[in-house]
Automatic annotation (TrEMBL):
SUPFAM superfamilies: Formyltransferase (SSF53328). Its EC number is 2.1.2.2. Residues 3-183 form the Formyl transferase N-terminal domain. It catalyses: N(1)-(5-phospho-beta-D-ribosyl)glycinamide + (6R)-10-formyltetrahydrofolate = N(2)-formyl-N(1)-(5-phospho-beta-D-ribosyl)glycinamide + (6S)-5,6,7,8-tetrahydrofolate + H(+). (6R)-10-formyltetrahydrofolate binds at residue 103. HAMAP family: PurN. It is an enzyme of class 2 (transferase). This is Phosphoribosylglycinamide formyltransferase. Pathway: Purine metabolism; IMP biosynthesis via de novo pathway; N(2)-formyl-N(1)-(5-phospho-D-ribosyl)glycinamide from N(1)-(5-phospho-D-ribosyl)glycinamide (10-formyl THF route): step 1/1. Keywords: Purine biosynthesis, Transferase. Catalyzes the transfer of a formyl group from 10-formyltetrahydrofolate to 5-phospho-ribosyl-glycinamide (GAR), producing 5-phospho-ribosyl-N-formylglycinamide (FGAR) and tetrahydrofolate.
């Protein structure tokens, strides 16, 4: 039986795309579901292209019911990957998947993390601070934004003339390179 991953994403889903590509031919791991809080998210199109089912939920469903957990359990999901998902994960979901939820953040945590620090906000803050390096952090998810145990970090150089697009591009290249293989390493080790 393959181990089954659910991806939570709120936007474009370029990381989700890399994961879908990476595991498409895997014999032991599959992306089985994509979930989003945003009915307009391009990640839904990407899921469709890979014939992966998706589910859209609202705040009430996510924070006031167990419906998302029931869905994950009904679909036999073993592991959760956040890929540009912007809402805080509620306690009941963390309790249902202990040590089985990971996130990627576009900075070297603990710097440039926390509520409101996502996507371009992070890159702009890194540039404004005049940092010589940017990076990514892959970490376990707990009840606070960007605070779970770190799994993997990687860095890139920021040149003086780098603008938002350039910094974002460098960060994305690292994310796309490392997220699928780091997840594969973790999921291989968990019990079905
Ligand atoms: C990624 O850069 C990810 O690190 C970031 O959102 C982007 C999603 O891009 N996540 C956060 O900022 C979480 N705090 P994508 O939709 O193209 O994968």
């Amino acid at each position: 039986m393959k181990k089954r991953i659910a991806i939570f994403a709120s936007g474009s889903g370029s990381n989700a795309q890399k994961l879908m590509e990476h595991f498409k031919r895997s014999t032991d791991i599959e992306i089985a579901l994509v979930l989003t809080n945003n009915a307009e998210a391009y990640v839904l199109q990407r899921a469709d292209n890979f014939e992966i089912p998706s589910h859209i939920f609202d705040k009430h469903e996510f924070y006031k019911t167990d419906d998302v957990i029931d869905l994950l359990r009904n679909l036999d999901i073993d592991f959760i990957v956040l890929a540009g998902f912007l809402w805080l994960i509620p306690k009941n979901l963390i309790a249902a998947y202990p040590g089985r939820i990971v996130n990627i953040h576009p900075a070297i945590l603990p710097k440039f993390g926390g509520k409101g620090m996502y996507g371009d906000h992070v890159h702009n803050a890194v540039i404004a601070a005049g940092e010589p390096e940017g990076g990514i952090t892959i970490h376990y998810v707990d009840e606070n934004y960007d605070e779970g145990e770190y799994i993997y970090q990687a860095k890139y150089k920021i040149d003086k003339n780098d603008n938002l697009e350039m910094v974002k591009f460098k960060g994305q290249q690292l994310e796309h390179l490392h997220y699928p293989r780091v997840i594969e390493g973790i999921v291989k080790k968990i019990k079905k």
